Amino acid sequence: MAALAGGVAAVILGIIGIVVWWGDFLEILKGTLPAMFILGGALAAYLGYEEIKDKKAAESFEESSTDLKQEVESLKEEIKELKEEKKGTEQKEEKASEGDKEQENK
After folding, report:
1. Do the domain assignments include residue 70?
2. pTM
């Protein structure tokens, strides 16, 4: 509540000050506008430069992510081949152990 009352009082005093000191306000405005334009322009140029850097970084990230996706796919293929190879060797071992058991039973 106190912040609201203080805000309203500041707005009223500001309006009265601009009305009473209109000429002085315009002189100060004339003096500060070039500085604001310089600072605003520098800020806009800096933000534009950062945006260009971000776009380049995103493009290189996309290229590296495509390479990584291809590598992941090749590794998945390799894992599938190894699993199939392992199943084949396990089946051979099972058949060999079954053959040994049959010879022992005879």
Report:
1. yes
2. 0.45
